[in-house]
TrEMBL record:
Belongs to the 'GDSL' lipolytic enzyme family. The keyword Signal applies. Residues 1-25 form the signal peptide. It is found in: Secreted. This is GDSL esterase/lipase.
Length: 323
């Protein structure tokens, strides 16, 4: 259910470069990299490390993050839930080596994106102080482990923040922030340049569909359910657009069948559990068909898909290339 795998190094391959209204997704061939950049890396040296030089200018005033355990930076620490990453060895490679709530040894994909565009790590929304809640303008993280697009916010592990609730909180954030801008125009400009990074749906298409206590699989086929989840996802993007967001980086679903908890229980050892990967593949197909259409229907928007599935698959298939 909760991936204990470290996404950090493999998903470093996925990121986004933004300059003005332009958004380009770039995949760095990991074979060219050696290890993970140090924690305290500067934007400049990171770009050098990634062989991107200094020709790239970023114009991203804020990074807003939505999703599940792939990006949660500590929101679940504030919820009554068993889905928490607040104990060692989580966080051993993060700052002072203490767990933060991130489901990884180090940084999440969202943290790497923040470093690349030159922003602080977006803090978890539920941990914001009153002042931060009213003034922080570099971005917030709403991600919540174990939650998804059609999630109710209650599961057998406890509570979590489903996508719609994360968007409600985002609405609160920007509502607070708007008052601090001198004009509506300035604020709209800020918001349209801000990057929204979304990694969600992994739970919908795995444990919520066919995991412990799930009943959905009895009602819908995989294609039917994937369509329902994808429809709701696209509606949510429209909602974010109406709130003023324009730039979206959307990760597709990871190869959930390759995470250690899935692979370990097998009778016949394979790299990944095909049955678990299939729903993700089904959903990803829909996503790549639907998102270009959503972009066309939302004037001025730019939606980029990050291919998390294949990055993860590649890392599992060729681990040596990733150190
Ligand atoms: C980053 O950390 C390393 C080792 O912990 C240290 O040698 C280096 O000076 C630090 N760099 C910066 C920019 O703080
Ligand atoms: C942020 O401020 C809003 C009021 O504008 C409040 O409803 C919300 O609970 C606050 N959130 C946090 C995390 O402090």
């Amino acid at each position: 259910m909760i991936s204990s795998l470290s996404h950090t190094s493999c998903l470093l391959a996925l990121f986004i470069l933004c300059s003005g209204n332009y958004v380009v997704a770039i995949e760095i061939p990991m074979g060219d990299l050696s290890g993970v950049p140090p924690f305290n890396v500067t934007q400049k040296s990171l770009l050098k490390f990634l062989k991107l030089g200094d020709t790239i200018k970023f114009n991203v005033p804020a990074l807003y993050v939505f999703g599940d355990s792939t990006v949660d930076s500590g929101n679940n620490n504030f919820l009554i839930s068993l889905a928490k990453a607040n104990y060692t060895p989580y966080g051993v490679d993060f700052g002072d080596g203490k767990p933060t709530g991130r489901y990884t040894n180090g940084r999440t994909e969202a943290d790497f994106i923040a470093q690349i565009v030159g922003l602080p790590f977006p803090p978890p929304y539920l941990g914001l102080s009153d002042t931060e809640n009213k003034t922080l303008h570099t971005g917030v993280n709403y991600g919540s482990g174990g939650c998804g697009i059609l999630s109710t916010g209650q599961n057998y592990l406890g509570t979590c923040l489903p996508f719609y609730k994360q968007i409600n909180y985002f609405a609160t954030t920007i509502n607070n922030l708007e008052k601090r801008f001198e004009s509506k125009k300035r604020f709209d400009d800020y918001l349209s340049k801000s990057l929204l990074f979304i990694d969600i749906g992994n739970i919908d298409m795995s444990s919520d569909y066919n995991g412990v206590g799930a009943t959905i699989f009895r009602k819908y086929t995989v294609p039917q359910y994937a369509q329902m989840v994808a429809n709701e996802f696209c509606k949510s993007l429209e909602r974010l657009y109406k709130l003023g967001a324009r730039k979206f980086l959307v990760n597709n679903l990871g190869a959930m069948g390759c995470i250690p908890t899935q692979v370990q229980g097998q009778m016949q050892k394979t790299l990944c559990v095909e049955k678990t990967n299939r729903p993700a593949v089904e959903y990803n197909k829909l996503l790549s068909e639907m998102l270009p259409k959503v972009q066309v229907s939302l004037p001025g928007s730019k939606i980029v898909i990050g291919d998390a599935y294949n990055v993860l698959m590649d890392a599992v298939t060729f681990p040596a290339q990733y150190g």
